[in-house]
Amino acid sequence: MRYFEDIEVGSTEEFGEYHVTKAEITEFAEQYDPQPFHTDEDAASESAFGELVASGWHTAAMSMRLLVDNYLGDQAGMGGRSADELRWERPVTPGETLSLRLEVVDKHCSESDPQRGYVDNYIEVVNQDDEVVLSYIVTGMIERRKSDE
Amino acid sequence: MRYFEDIEVGSTEEFGEYHVTKAEITEFAEQYDPQPFHTDEDAASESAFGELVASGWHTAAMSMRLLVDNYLGDQAGMGGRSADELRWERPVTPGETLSLRLEVVDKHCSESDPQRGYVDNYIEVVNQDDEVVLSYIVTGMIERRKSDE
């Protein structure tokens, strides 16, 4: 298990492969973001996007799945606290394959809880053409190593 | 249909009622954020949260549904561009009822596209006890009124 002390500021990772399907785009959108350019191919073709595109929050959710499967699994994570400078740089369309780049940009101890630390990660979600579709800074909470570990 | 010109900076809205269920929390988490404190009640009881909590991205997605159902339906929206200062202030647990407060904090024209404007909305998602569980500023793209409309 990796704790706060094991996280190195400046370290980078690149991982994952998330295949985006039309069915998943419309399913997410029907539940959480039922705007026509996310749920209906014909309506989308007449929108500013010109084609069906994933909800921006869906792309964020997909990035979370990439993080859990490839990076957070062996961390003593305590959940997320905040996200900043989130930019939906490009639409995500059916048939794309997404992967994730991560850089640890900062970490700091909690002032109120000696067992807790915070890690700031800069995230870029990129498509199969290496174009950034989404970027953000996420601050996660993580356990500090107990003195006997 | 409401266009960029119809949006008034400083205006506020408060709306919606989203009932959060255990089934929906675990379903979202199994697909997008399979960390034990989001997917498994027993594991969650031994986590820092002490109980099952919704994925932070799930709460963001629920807030989007509240916006689409109650606010964006009659806007000439062109999708979201960015989100800033997103704060998961409190965990969201099964049985809670969420609603949304919105304030239009700024708007500005696009320099590259005369048909497009940007609107910055400050969003607070509150639970049944009027506690803020999530807040963020989201910048949405919206059509400008054509001169003959």
Explained architecture:
The first copy, chain A, is α+β, with helices and mostly antiparallel strands and 149 residues long. The first copy, chain A, has one domain (4-143): Thiol Ester Dehydrase, Chain A. Chain A is 25% helix and 38% strand. The first copy, chain A, contains four helices and five strands. The first copy, chain A, has a five-stranded antiparallel beta sheet, with helices on one face. In chain A, strand 4 (116-126) and strand 5 (132-143) form a beta hairpin. Chain A is elongated, with a radius of gyration of 17 Å. Chains A, B: Residues 16-108 form the MaoC-like domain. Chains A, B: This is MaoC domain protein dehydratase.
Total individual domains of chain A:
1
Mean pLDDT of chain A: 96
The H/E string of chain A reads EHHHHEEEE
Q: Name the shape of chain A in a single word.
A: elongated
Helix content of chain A: 10-25%
Q: Strand percentage of chain A, roughly?
A: 35-45%
| Major sheet: arrangement of strands of chain A | 1-3-4-5-2
For the sheet with most strands of chain A, the description reads: 5 strands, antiparallel
Radius of gyration of chain A: 17 Å
What is the CATH fold-level name of chain A?
Answer: Thiol Ester Dehydrase, Chain A
Largest interface by Cβ-Cβ < 8 Å: A-B, 40 and 39 residues
If classified by CATH, what would the architecture of chain A be? Roll
Classify the secondary structure makeup of chain A into a structural class: alpha+beta
Unreliable residue runs of chain A? none
What oligomeric assembly is this protein in?
homodimer
Through-space gap between termini of chain A: 10 Å
Helix count of chain A, per DSSP? 4
CATH homologous superfamily descriptor of chain A: Hotdog Thioesterase
The number of distinct β-strands of chain A equals 5
CATH level 1 class label of chain A: Alpha Beta
